[in-house]
């Protein structure tokens, strides 16, 4: 008789297991003659029935099981292979496993040949899917008694649940619905703002990271991992693959496996050996890994690390205290976006560690005047030359730059020097094609749903465990790693579209934003959203999603299209409206950050240098356009701005293409190759100084401005920033910003003043055409005089060079 060997992964301990010399012990689950098997009575044990029941979490699944079992009973007498196969495969995995095993143990399976092959008893027990996938195995009529027993237990449970629901509904006190039922009960009408989606408090506010993963305390480490459908889980203390010690874990009622040991002090590396519900056996890292280390022998292998969260002594109490007392939306927000692993490298192109990065990064942010850094590529990911958005672990900082204590040191140093830290947080999808990830952890996908367009798996927020995982992740980065904000990636994927909202995603973000603002005063939640979801930055109590800010992606696209056009085309009505429409609508829009990000500079053709000037312009004109663009970004009404690494230098090479070549993503050598790059950097630095030192640019955000001119024929846009009132001279001081987007200079241009717009004296404080910025110098002296215009109204007569921005400050 020809026997078929089970698939390799079901017997092999796996590559990493072989390295540590592990031996497998399948135990009673793989033996049909074990203590719970071998009986000839056609009966299912109470334990088997209970195991089936436990695998079903709600009434709708239970009803589906009932229908499938009933269908099997109806068709069993006919011995119709195809129909039995269809009914069997519709059953949940645990029901198929229990039923197939009981069938074999009670000798109720008729063996038939298919292409001369028999399937042995051992294979059916280890791989019950064979029973439903081949017509070689058919349950005879006597097997119907087993199916009837399962059906009877299911119907009993359904009956009990209906009675309990009826009893609860008759009580005066409302009982919270399960999370999924609660969010699905909320219906949002198309093109309407979302309502507040109530989700039971226990679903989220339970700092899950404190009860999962490896928790070290007083000489002992407790390991907990959630794998409700796994047959067994063991802890493997790996010591970087040199040797291994296996400790069996006990399963709790909630599906969490646990073991406590004194043999795993902080720094110990470990893995979990998981025998999943399908009989497969795999070594996995901890989904709640707080630090990771690569193998000493093979770079592709990764190990979880035991962490003592109390070991690092923070010195940023003053920063956190001040942050909690101030409204971040009424403070300057100048963000430097950078990929932490590629921003700066050593002379031999070695990646710098978190500790090595601290001092040069602090010095650069202070030099340039950035108030915050935003790290992307910080969350753990697998490939060294990747962008870092295919996340494989939602807690550990990227392993190749050091330990979690090293990252804490970096954040601590940034705070002590007055610089905030924002994380690019990825809640929409995760990497699922590697043992390092949490995909199919116990044989089922506890977190995901369908594949994404990025080669990853979408997180499914209708699943309780996905919500709990990501809520815990956000809390962990704020609470334990002291971050000041999350820039939330791909929000549109979680929320859905304006006319096709996803209630579960809406509920998740509403609850998360409320919890973050309550637990971490002064922290920022920033959305990257592309579909115009309504009320994204409105408070939840007003029917919004509750984010503080969103990226101004529309502003970025329209601004670059405008700058990319020729100087004649900029004067066309359609092109000029790309600038003026923003100013006309900003007071009534979402609270936005003016951003040009890593997404916009991945290819050479998309670098800022190539995107904000017409291809046929000279180098001098290109840099003039760049200076004008940065002035427009920093000074226009908004809640802040974001500059991507390398753009402040006007680098010509793509950051991502440099990363793939193992070079620093920033083209630092450009500063030596041409004085224009250094001059542009100096211009950005001075713009940042003006922004930080003038409260009129950030105190009132998009509300603190008044339009003065939108002259399409001459390509000039002018506006006032600030109201002229405030508790101090610094806050009361107003600015006049004038942008000349044309290639024509104007020696005398009159800016009309409205009746309520009265100025004292005006002093020029910035001219992007200055020679120190790489401009042509003072060929046309920018000045301001008060005159009567041709319309006999008060006006300010100014002179303004071509392709330039001029800033005047009101003085006493």
Q: Could you please describe the fold and organization of this structure?
A:
The chain is 31% helix and 21% strand. The strands form nine sheets. The protein has an eight-stranded parallel beta barrel with strand order 13-14-17-21-24-25-26-27, surrounded by four helices. Strands 5, 6, 9, 10, 11 and 12 form a six-stranded antiparallel β-sheet that branches. A hairpin with a 5-residue loop joins strand 19 and strand 20. Helix 3 (59-75) packs antiparallel against helix 4 (81-89) and helix 19 runs parallel beside helix 22. The chain is elongated.
Distance between the termini: 102 Å
Sheet with the most strands: spatial strand order: 13-14-17-21-24-25-26-27
Strand content: 15-25%
Question: What is the mean predicted local confidence, pLDDT?
Answer: 80
Determine the number of helices (DSSP H or I, runs of at least 4 residues): 23
Overall shape: it is elongated
Q: Please count the beta strands (DSSP E, at least 2 residues each).
A: 35
Contiguous low-pLDDT stretches (5 residues minimum) are 1-42, 106-142, 167-205
Tell me the Rg in angstroms: 32 Å
Largest sheet entry: 8 strands, parallel, barrel
Q: Helicity, in percent?
A: 25-40%
Q: Structural class from helices and strands?
A: alpha+beta
Output the keywords:
about 800 residues; alpha+beta; eight-stranded parallel barrel; six-stranded antiparallel β-sheet; 23 helices; about 20% strand; disordered N terminus
Give a short summary of the structure.
This protein has 812 residues and is of the alpha+beta class.
